[in-house]
């Protein structure tokens, strides 16, 4: 009953991941609305949001959902809040996150040179292709190549992990302490509105005249 009349194609799903139909602003508003209305304690929702934000700064592309759920489970956070919070990592923010994380990681590891987003994601694509090539080489005559993967891990992936973990920790702590008071305020306002609604219903019932009782029937 709740299914689409015309199912979306895979190309439409991919397009919506890159740019939602209603735009990123509307998608962000929807995510905030869903997080605010989650039926859970504020501190658990805050922990879930922190887990999702933290994972978004790591180079675990394709595993952000699973990683966010795992982190939320470990720290006792809301799983759905963690999944929704991974929205912070999207095609618009990923270039900035990648440059900041890799740049910080390379400085900490004392590696020379700065890399732009095109270089970083280009190397990720090349490394993915090489991994797939090496997997196929197990079952075919092709030879595996590991030289570029070793360089990729040293120059890009490991700096991304180091810088991403540091920035992710700072961002997740900030997200937690910003989320909890907002959720608490929303819960208090919702409880107050429900109490006012119940009071209005009770007052209306008290002021409504009752119909007269029917006369007693003769024996």
Automatic annotation (TrEMBL):
Region of interest (Disordered), residue spans: 200-219
Entry-linked InterPro entries: DUF2062 (IPR018639)
Domain DUF2062, residue spans: 26-191
Superkingdom of the source species: Bacteria
Keywords: Membrane, Transmembrane, Transmembrane helix
Ranges annotated as spanning the membrane: 49-75, 81-102, 157-178
Pro residues biased stretches: 209-219
Alphabetical list of PANTHER family matching this protein: SLL0298 PROTEIN (PTHR40547)
Protein name: DUF2062 domain-containing protein
Higher taxonomy: Bacteria, Pseudomonadati, Pseudomonadota, Alphaproteobacteria, Rhodobacterales
